[in-house]
Specification:
Structural class: alpha+beta
Oligomer: single chain
Strand order of the largest sheet: 1-6-7-8-10-9
Number of helices: 6
Distance between the termini: 23 Å
Shape: globular
Strand content: 25-35%
Order of helices and strands: EEHEHEEHEEHEHEEH
Helix content: 25-40%
């Protein structure tokens, strides 16, 4: 069985009342002047966690980006692979959002390693009910399930095909390789059981490649 690879939160801060200039840059809606920001070692886990925050607190995601080449080439010890920023009406809501993010990162969402040194990995995570962030990214209604599927370039493309054929799901967002971190994948939607079947097929197909990469 693949080993779980957990993301690590490297830095986190709350700005109780952000400066007007930054509020304009983040295009904050009226009344949303408190910010919570964090960096993590794994970007896709970070995106998943930000979405969870929008379900657990009165916050919205105002900024989320992956860093080029990934955590192994980070610009500093607290940079990692990803930065996310949430906004809320007050610091308490932002704090609740950050707590939801931390819980997701520590306990819910993870990559899976395909070798001993964890240099080969995949992400096959099912979100049973999307929040405002991932639903907007996927172009679906809030609360619908998705299969969030990510892997290295060739594996991701092969795995997506297997996932789409394994269940009654639709590809709603395509991440063509290379991404900023040199991966690829997509967001699929359908009924929750179908999303799970798609994620399982994605995982199985990539394990097959990892075991026999030159067999076609």
């Amino acid at each position: 069985m693949p080993e779980k690879i957990r993301a690590e939160i490297l830095a986190v801060r709350i700005i109780p009342h952000v400066d007007e200039s930054l509020a304009i840059e983040y295009q904050l809606k009226p009344g949303y002047r408190s910010l919570g920001m964090l960096t993590t070692t794994i970007d896709d886990v970070g995106y998943t966690a930000l979405d969870e925050a929008t379900k657990q607190a009165d916050v919205e995601v105002v900024y989320a980006r992956s860093f080029y080449a990934g955590a192994s080439h980070a610009s500093g010890p607290l940079s990692g692979e990803f930065i996310g920023v949430i906004a809320g009406s007050n610091p308490d809501e932002v704090r609740s959002g950050l707590e939801a993010i931390a819980h997701t990162i520590h306990y819910e969402a993870f990559f899976e390693s395909l070798n001993e040194n964890q240099s080969h990995a995949l992400y096959a995570h099912v979100v049973a009910r999307t929040g405002s962030y991932l639903s907007k990214l996927a172009g679906i209604n809030e609360g619908e399930p998705i299969a969030y599927l990510i892997a290295p370039p060739l594996e991701a493309m092969y795995g997506l095909d297997a996932a789409l054929k394994a269940a009654d799901v639709r590809l709603m967002k395509f991440f063509g390789p290379p991404s900023e971190t040199n991966f690829g994948g997509g967001l699929l939607t359908g009924k929750q059981a179908a999303c799970q079947a798609a994620a399982d097929a994605f995982r199985a197909s990539i394990i097959e490649i990892a075991n026999k990469p030159l067999l076609y």
